[in-house]
Amino acid sequence: MEWFLDTFINDITSGDLPVKLYVAGNDIPERFDDYEALGKVFIQGEVDDALEFVNSKSIMIVPLLSGGGMRVKIVEGMAMQKCIISTSLGAEGINFKNGHDILIANTRDEFYQAMQRCIKDEEFCIQLGKNARLLAEKEHDINLVTKNLIKFYKACCKE
After folding, report:
1. How many angstroms separate the Cα of 75 from the Cα of each of 36, 62, 130, 144?
2. Which of 13, 110, 111, 122 has the most Cβ atoms closer than 10 angstroms to its Cβ?
3. CATH top-level class for 48-158?
4. Average pLDDT over all residues of the chain
5. What is the predicted pLDDT for the residue at 154?
6. Residues with Cβ < 8 Å from 39, sequence gap 6 or more?
7. Contact at 8 Å (CB) between 12 and 41?
8. Is it the case that residue 70 has pLDDT exceeding 70?
9. Checking DSSP bridges between strand 83-86 and strand 21-24, what pairing results, if any?
10. Which positions ≥6 away from 29 have C-beta within 8 Å?
11. DSSP state for residue 98 in the 8-state scheme
């Protein structure tokens, strides 16, 4: 997140990206308050209801540059029909189609273009969210996941 803020703070505060950026999460360092002082950036810290927080925003940005495993927050955002912009690493483990279910951006230019597209084309942003919801229903529905897990365990026990 710090990379994202450092990279785009001037674009956000100058108005090149006409957005307000809300940052939520546990244990956000105090130095992030410096971004908030510049305007148009709001450091929320830990929120009482993460689903309500995400649902109240138009675009979900997940600029992960390190780590491993599937990002449950992205799947939750997809289930909430959010327009999501993330990195390849952030969307790792999700069977997405870039530009259809989620937007992938790995560089500053790609993030900028993705954000501009979502800001300027509300219909595209809405459709991306709808497609994301369909993908979440198809591949991450709790009943389907449970059924596949039971099937997997049964197959393992036979061997």
Report:
1. 28, 12, 13, 15
2. 111
3. alpha beta
4. 89
5. 79
6. 13
7. yes
8. no
9. unpaired
10. none
11. B
